[in-house]
Amino acid sequence: MSSSSLPADHSPYQATAEWYDAIYAARGRDCTREIDYLSRYWMEDGRTAESRRILDAGCGSGAHFDALSRHGRVTGVDRSSEMLEVAGRKPHARLVQADLRTLDLGSNFEVVVCLFGVCGYLADRSELTTVLGLLGRHLESGGVLLLEPPLLEERYEDPVDVHVETRRGDLLLSRTTTAQRIGSHLELNFEWRAHALEGLPARSRTDRIIREQHRILLLDSDAYLQAATSALGERFEVRIDPEGPCGRGLLVAISRDGVRGSG
Questions:
Q1: Would you say 185 and 162 are in contact if contact means Cβ atoms under 8 Å apart?
Q2: DSSP bridge partners of 78
Q3: What is 124-190 written as a DSSP string?
Q4: Bridge-partner residues for 145, per DSSP?
Q5: Residue 164 CB neighbour total at 10 angstroms
Q6: Which residues pair with 250 in a beta bridge?
Q7: Cβ(34)–Cβ(64) under 8 Å?
Q8: Which of 145, 98, 121 is nearest to 254 (CA)?
Q9: What is residue 226's predicted lDDT score, i.e. its pLDDT?
Q10: Which of 44, 165, 217, 229 has the fewest Cβ atoms nearer than 10 Å?
C-alpha cells in the first residue's frame, strides 16, 4: 500500500471540503439541535418562516441549511469556493462567495448567524471588531446577531490529541488532530486520511493523506463583549450566553431598534 501527502500548510478545507460533513457527523455534531437551541433568540420576533430572512455568515458546507430553512429564507456566505461547491448540493439557500472582512451584500436580514467558530479564523481582535460591524450593518431593526466562538478562553483546557474515523461510500475517512496554544491563538494540526476499502481495484486503493494547519483566535468573554460593543454601539443589547449551542459559548447581539413581536 502506497501513500501520497500534501504539505502541512495546505489551506484549511481546500482539499477536504468533501469530507467535512462526514467527519463532524462522526463526532456527533447535530445541526438540527444546534438551530433548535439558537431559535430561542428569534422565535418571538413576530415573523414566520416565509417572512424571516436569515444570513448564515461563514456557512461552510451548508451543514445548517436544512435546519435554518425551517425558520426562514436562508442566504449562505463563505469565502471558500470548495466549501460552497459542497453547500451548493444542499437545497434551501442562496449562496454568495464573499469574505466576511469586506462583506457588503446590499440587503438586510432579521437573523444573522456566524456559527461553529468561523470567527476563530480571523487574525486578531481588530478583524473581529470589523466583521461584527459589517454583520451588524446587515441586520434589520429589531433583528438578532448570533456569533459562536471557537472556544471561550476561560473554558480552555490543555488540548489532547483527537482521532475520529467514519465510512463514506467506499472510503474509510479519518482525521487526527493535535493542538497547542501559542499566545492568543490555538494551533490545530489536522491529518486527514482517506483509505479505499477492500473490493476496489488495487490501483484505486492508494491512501490519500492531507495535512492542514488551522490557526484559531482564542479570546475570553470580555474580549468578545468589548469587540461587539465597539463595533455595534448603543444600537444593540450585547451579552454572552456561556453555553451556546455546543458548549462553546455564544455572543448575542439584539438590535434595540424597532419593536420585537410577541409571537
A1: no
A2: 97
A3: SHHHHHHHHHHHHHTEEEEEEEEE--S-BGGG------EEEEEEETTEEEEEEEEEEEETTEEEEEE
A4: 112, 253
A5: 16
A6: 241
A7: yes
A8: 145
A9: 98
A10: 44
Q: Which three cell numbers stand for residue 171?
A: 472510503
Q: Who's near 131: CB < 8 A, 6+ residues apart?
A: 100, 101, 103, 114, 119, 122, 231
The C-alpha atoms of residue 237 and residue 226 are separated, in whole angstroms, by: 12
Q: Give pLDDT tens digits along the chain (263 positions).
A: 334 444 455 789 999 999 999 999 999 999 999 999 999 999 999 999 999 999 999 999 999 999 999 999 999 999 999 999 999 999 899 999 999 999 999 999 999 999 999 999 999 999 999 999 999 999 999 999 999 999 999 999 998 899 999 999 989 999 999 999 999 999 999 999 999 887 655 555 568 999 999 999 999 999 999 999 999 999 999 999 999 999 999 999 999 875 443 22
What type of residue sits at position 84?
A: L
Alpha-carbon distance of 26 to 29, in angstroms, equals 7
Between strands 236-241 and 53-57, the pairing is unpaired
Grid coordinates of 184 = 492568543
